[in-house]
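Regression test attached.
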Amino acid sequence: MSMAEAVTEVQARVALDVDACIECRTCAAACLYGHGDVPVVHFARVGAAMLPALCRQCQDAPCVAACPADAMVRDPSGAVYRATFRCRGCESCVRACPFGVLTAETFAGAIAKCDLCVDRSADGLPPRCVSSCPAGALHFLREQDADRHHLVVLGSRTLGQHPIRRR
Amino acid sequence: MSSDPGGRAGTGRCLFCNLGCPLQLERFAPHRWRPQFNGTTATCARGQMLADLLQSPHRLYRPRHGDADVRLDNAIDALARRIADSTTARVAIWMDGGLALEDLVVAQRFCATQPEQRQLLIQVPPGELGATEGLDAAGVPQTAPDGRHNADTFLIIGNPLATHPAAARWLLQREASRSRPTAIVVDSSAGALMTYGAPALICRPGGEWAVVAALLHAAGFTANRTTPGLTLPPNTPENAGVAPAALQQAAGRLRDSRQPAVLIAPQAGRRDTWRALTAAAASWARAKNGWTCVLTTHANALGYARYARRHGIGDWWSAAVQGRSPVADVLLVVGWDPTSASPRALWEPMFAAARHVVLLSAFPPTDATAYQAVLPVALPAEAGGSFVLADGRATRVEPVLPPPPGVPTARQILSRLTGQPDAADRPIAEADLAPTAPEVAPVSAAAPDLPTTGGWPAVLIAEPTQYADGQITRQSRWSQHVDRYPELRLAPRDAGTLGVRDGQLVTIHNAQGHARVRVALASQQPIATACYTEPTTLSKAGQPAGWLAVGSAAPDVRRLMGLRFGQRDDLAAAGVLAVEIETDAAAAHGTRQEAGRVHG
């Protein structure tokens, strides 16, 4: 069994503190420039707020199961990334994503997918969206560490200071 | 030079606003740089565009004369001859307030030798100019926002989280701290900042001064309604769209404050009202042993304002509004593009009065036909120099990267044109930047009336992530990605009032014409304003008479923005652009949607 198969869940995820987000879209800009002008972080309207739509790195990732080309791959760290040369841009993963994070737009024929900035993780650095956030609204952490930040886990991957309302 | 041209890293500061955030770039391809985030340097989206813009293929690399490329040396020599040929040559220079002080000094020394023949104007948005003047008029030093950590009350005027997102780094950290200072927010947007307001006073555009004046009066700072610099008509808070109860609650907190901090982000409005507002708020903070910080979108607004006052240099907006067009043989526009940043009605007469109009810019202008020649220059981040940033002190900023080969800095060109070969290297005299107290004339705190045309009073404003009115930042990949599809951005509250849904195609009308646009809701959008976004448009808000819209690449939208300018009073009346919004369904039936006024 390979290491990639052994790991079924990513160790740490990018989580959003909805109370702290100021909707400045800095994370999206950092992502675009960090991934060769391929936009991976999008902003979605949630009620009156505009919040970043971030890949949840699902434990049982529907995008992996749906991809007919095996282009969605879980790497040794547990993160799901898109293998560029396998992706045919068929958009199966887009339809499978339960959170609407993946978009149908293709870049060089491939779907844009968060890889947790794998080029930085080797140096022990968090993803660019987390490092660039001026408001400290994005965290790169394990779910069980949310308590340490005095945050409530909402909807599995979103954090806040109150379980049912935004501030 | 802080960067290593042959290496992989460049460090410096982002100069897209006066926060001057530290910036670190990494090279990831032979001619490509991107921001590096190491945990200590982080900039907003505007700062991240900088790396892209430094290497942008859209940059100007060769001078243009008409439709032809020309050699830089030839262009400069020809222009220098035109300036020097006759001692009677009249020259006007317009300098952008985001450039280094050294650039301004070169131009000032040139113009000072023959003041009758040469005129120098600075371009700083009126709201920012007024706020910096108000700060000095109050005799209050500018304090860096992160310089003090002991404030118990923040009075935040404007929306610094929209115009200066990096300010969130310390503002929200303070908010999250154990002492948790009170934040009183006065602004016309209902965005994320408002969630921190206790209370948040959402006023209508142009009503900030009315609210602050009423606040200080209710807090007991201004004991009567005719304090110099402050006249307070009755019903002021109601006129500004703020509930009296909320205002009284906020005033109580101001009264109880022991050490306040005033944070002002003047995005839009008249110069005189922002001057009066800042003077009053800063005086209150000083009386309470607090501090004041003015955040400007032009990095050197404070330095330029002080230097200009010291040397009697005028500002472009005032000259344009008052119709004081300089009659010049040569007009040099340095670092900004009036054809992008201001209404045609303002710049066209001034251009027409000049025989030869030359632009010094890093990017092509919006309307290239307006200039006889365009010369490439380095961006401020490539040129470095002296800047008076948010801490209020003149700081020598090193270039983050060297300019592209063959592209000079603005002061190098100005030095050659004006025959001052060593002027660019002269240090700035401290006395030139010492604050002088401008007079603060009494300004009525009555909130401006919105037009009663029967339509929805929309005010078209700029996207806060744009710099230099979009002329520079719209060239970046990020800007082109987020603004690919022109849309009319509305506050959700206004959309609810109008019955307009997100993504709906609507027609906007005014007396000049109509345009079809798609609506996008954004909570950051100030109430009663609309932001028309596209990669090639938008003026920064902050025009002399309040809120004026300007250029657009789309002809139908440009027509809507075709405001007329005459006397100053007319400008005040035209400060708000009334736009009726017509939905598709209403258009199909040939009737306009009933669109009541958002306020009042």
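Expected vs. actual: identical. The longest strand of chain B covers residues 513-521.
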